[in-house]
């Protein structure tokens, strides 16, 4: 068991044991002979067994498999040496960029706020959006297209990439030989999405009588929420979550609680924002202003976004996820004591430097949760399970490199004419689809459709469906794309995805494609 | 001696002991002339020998993979009369589920005694036969080959496995249908000791401070 899980289990055992001693052991019905059974029944009835199960379930999902004893920690982050190296080089570029921004602007990376400023911020906490600071000097540290160039240049030094045409020659931009799945394998893996299984996003359409699927599915959903069962919620989510139950179901799947200690943790983070001013705060402001505030669906949540993202930057609990993330948090030294370990700190405190579009990971969640500490808790869990994989170089099957490769391979296998045509006109499909996948389609689909997609990400505990959807979108617009003669016109055909219905697209692509 | 039933020994999976041995240079197996043939070999053989006169009872062979798809292991064992004989103990063990793609290509691996077809005792030499059928890779090999001998019985680590204790103890002791008070009390004692540990640990739990004594003034990031 991981250390964190062991601690959690022990803490819960302590709490449960306390409860048992108080409530249970003095009761006449508890006999010595049946002590074990009686205590077990008591734990079940009081809900502790379920809580423990959910905690174990969460850890099993998040922690990677136990590694070989000889494997160093870096191997757990990323097993392939050349990917680790590429990630390190990419991080160096980001750090240099951030440092030069600091030096140019004469702004420190972090400073303590004077008391007056602290008071001002506390008063303005719920309406930070009304502030119009001068952000013109700040620029995003990087944009997705910069990251795409890094992925395109990834090479395995041990891979034979001689130019001979062969059955396995790859037409796309990603040139690393990661494993990908074909449609027959996906049909098995995503069997709940098949043509004969009911889906929210298809079978809840206004023309479909609710007795056929929707009513029963909602009834089961309510039961799952009542039982507070994480595993059941995850399985359930594969067929979509009803709007009224989605918030509870997602929180259950992510084992995200809003207990007093979570609220207190959030308040602590807020205090961290009040006391210290970080350069990344300006990057966050700028990002929100440029993306979410300009979006018809999300501009109303601007204040929430600041409240979540500024706190996120201060949350050292996020540092735990770096044990299985190929990335490493940036480091610095306070008071100029470079090299002195007692003065070493992580920057920002959560080790994550936001990039252009980062706030779009949070925006859709604002539709589900209106209490900042709850919204924060769910977002953080989504980030350390899924979103971090979209902007780091790794060989993980849910990582952005695998998603890009999966997308290109699906297209090449099932729409070869289209792929070839786009290549010929200088419109490599990945150059258009990358920005969708990096954001898991947030900001590109309409919100209700996006939430249906994210239901499946949670349900299957994988981002692979994002690559499938990207390929399905190209398949859907194939006819128009065959007519275009330039990258710009190809982009125009795919500029507006707001009318797309994701589940029919995915279902048709996976289950109706002729193979 | 009843209290011993309350403890179950759990073997730790890691053997830190290794025996000194020599890894001979890799031998290529290919058809045709190695000098003039342009295609790359798909089979390599690596011999690992113990110092002369020494034998080992193998617990585990560990190594780091580098793009090898399958490994077979043969052992040279000394029998009762001192004669040496080669036997296969592992046949085509898969290290890369898909030889054309990266999965498993750089993993740390171990082959354990329990997986072997024969008893790996009195071994003087180990032969690793590496196969990589895919032409996608320029090179393949295994690195850091280590042979771990069996540990003696005395030095096994005892880890009390109190989580499953209550079940085991119930089966072993049957004093007129009641559980043995001594075993129950020792289990409860262990649980209580754990809660004591947790209580003392709670104060050191991460409070989430990111500053050093209230200071978090940073000017530049550092990178090595």
Automatic annotation (TrEMBL), chain A:
SUPFAM superfamilies: Ypt/Rab-GAP domain of gyp1p
SMART domains: TBC (SM00164)
InterPro entries: Rab-GAP-TBC_dom (IPR000195), Rab-GAP_TBC_sf (IPR035969), TBC1D19 (IPR042507)
Domain (Rab-GAP TBC): residue spans on this chain: 240-461
Record protein name field: TBC1 domain family, member 19
Automatic annotation (TrEMBL), chain B:
InterPro entries per the UniProt record, alphabetical: Nicolin-1 (IPR040235)
GO cellular component, one term: nucleoplasm
Domain of life assignment: Eukaryota
Name of the molecule in the record: Nicolin 1
Gene: nicn1
